[in-house]
Amino acid sequence: MTEQQTIFLAKSEIKANDLEHKRKVAFNINKYNDSVVKGKKQFSDLDRARQKAKNIKWKTIENLDKYLEQFEKNFTAQGGKLIWAETAEDALQEILAICREKNTKQVVKAKSMVTEELHLNEFLKEHGIDSVETDLGEYIQQLDGEPPYHIVTPAMHKSKEDVARVFHDKLGTEPNLTPPEITKIARKNLREKYITAEVGITGGNFLLADIGGVCVTENEGNGRLSTTFPKTQISIVGIEKLLPSINDLQLFWPLLATYGTGQQLTVYNTIFTGPRKADENDGPEEMYVILLDNGRTNLLRKEVRESMYCIRCGSCLNACPVYKNIGGHAYGATYSGPIGSVITPHLNGMAEYKHLSYASSLCGNCTEVCPVKINIHEMLLENRAIATEEQLNGTVENITWRLWRDAMMSRRIMNLAGPGIKNKVINKLFAASWVKHRGELQFAERSFNKMWKERQKK
Question: Phi, psi (5° rounding) for residue 332?
């Protein structure tokens, strides 16, 4: 058993038995589900819209090299500076070089899962640069010293009382503040940062190849403030976020809003095509886009290629019974839930993270709710097959499953032992994984096979 698997099982056991944690998550997911039902009403033919979106992403990924080069050409033609980063370390060093060139000690950062993937805040802190999250959920998590819990709603696992406690402990505010009071304090603190920061950092929801644009979608205005006041903007985006044309946004923006938060459209939708032009009143003087690979080309293998279609809406997390029980932090990775279980082993190493692909009931609900129809549950099975083919499961595990398979497929072997022996063997083998939380299994005195034979004789 790997270190990551040991940690995963330990965290999962704690969270699965934490009723208060499950109550908070269920409350927030139920609110999300109610909103999504309303958001879907804007589509006259939702299934056709989802299929069209999948086709566009298929076309993009099949021609990824062409669209990446087209994006670079159009973005740099408008004064933007593009950097290719093969690894996380490449990206971090490029960001550090820009910050040092600008002689900045303060960075404001809009919500970005890619920067979480890079552990950017910790890296900049090590080099004497203060990086502040400006999304309220991310800001709460940063104050509490925790990574995001969810792709879209970083503090989903916290109640309003939990947030008030964090502000009281970290900022010395009055205890038991109301949500409006908490928001006002966050707004006051963050606006001072916008004014003093020399560099603003964002992610990107989509990249538009035909105009060289970076799309940032958000609900709080913090993304725009992070790119308006600082003189330098850095957008760090995974290479899979490409769309061929700006015209594709009329489909993808509503889909992302509906499946991400249940809205018809998010409040702020911005396209950045480079630094401020001569006839523009605001915006950065310099704009960099860092195109990040960091293992993404590993996802181009045919078994999991569809995972690159993901638009990071988080709907599969909200639908997954495993995620609802163990929460986002148990996964031990930037991307949690079903889609995270597909991509993390290929981004971070199959040997260490193959266990995530087994953290699924294979109910298929993740595939059912995906706005771009990714076959997520099938790719979880593919990951399991890859781990087996690459002999990553260990000799003992392989022998155990082979014996189990042979026994389950042979009626003769199953009939050799009576119910008493079966009870002892099975309850001992699965004492930790089943009996501990559910009670002992009890085999019937007469099996169906035996009863059928008796019926045939009569």
Answer: 65, 30
Going 406 to 407 to 410 to 416, the CA torsion angle's sign is: positive
Our count of domains for the chain comes to 2
pTM above 0.85, yes or no: yes
State residue 445's pLDDT score: 87
d(CA 206, CA 391) in angstroms, rounded, equals: 37
Q: What range does the domain containing 418 cover?
A: 412-457
Q: What is the pLDDT of residue 154?
A: 96
Q: How far apart are the first and last CA of the chain?
A: 52
DSSP state of 133: E
Task: Name residue 404's beta-bridge partners.
Answer: none
Instruction: Supply the pLDDT for residue 179.
Output: 95
The CA distances from residue 98 to 151, 289, 293, in Å, are 27, 12, 19
User: How do strand 213-218 and strand 130-133 relate by DSSP bridges?
Assistant: unpaired
Residue with tokens 């503090």: 155
∠ at Cα 20 (184, 367), nearest 5°? 90
Domain boundary among 261, 294, 327: 294
Could you tell me if residue 428 is inside a domain?
A: yes
- Helix or strand or coil: residue 272? strand
pLDDT (0 to 100) of residue 394? 81
Asked if residue 423 belongs to a domain, the reply is yes
Question: Max alpha carbon distance in the chain (Å)?
Answer: 95
Residue 320 lies in a domain: no
**pLDDT (0 to 100) of residue 362:** 95
In a domain, 416, yes or no: yes
Whichever domain contains 51, its CATH number is 3.40.50.10420
Which residues, in sequence order, are bridge partners of residue 233?
A: 200, 287
**Which secondary structure element, helix H or strand E, spans residue 215, and what is its range?**
strand 213-218
**pLDDT for res 81:** 98
Half-sphere exposure of 174 (CA within 13 A, CB side): 7
Same domain, residue pair 276 and 422:
no
The string over 131-142, giving b where at least 16 C-beta atoms fall within 10 Å of a residue's C-beta and e elsewhere, is bbbbbbbbbbbb
| Residue at which a domain ends, from 294, 318, 342 | 294
Point out the residues of the chain with pLDDT beneath 50: none
**DSSP-assigned beta bridge partners for residue 288:** 81, 234
**Nearest partner of 206 among 53, 32, 367, 33, judged by Cα:** 53
Q: Which residue has the tokens 């062409």?
A: 66
Contact in structure between 227 and 233 (CB atoms under 8 Å): yes
What is the DSSP pairing of strand 213-218 with strand 268-272? antiparallel
d(CA 237, CA 246): 17
Return the percent helix, strand and coil in the chain, to nearest 5: 60, 10, 30
Report the alpha-carbon angle 216-149-207, nearest 5.
Answer: 20
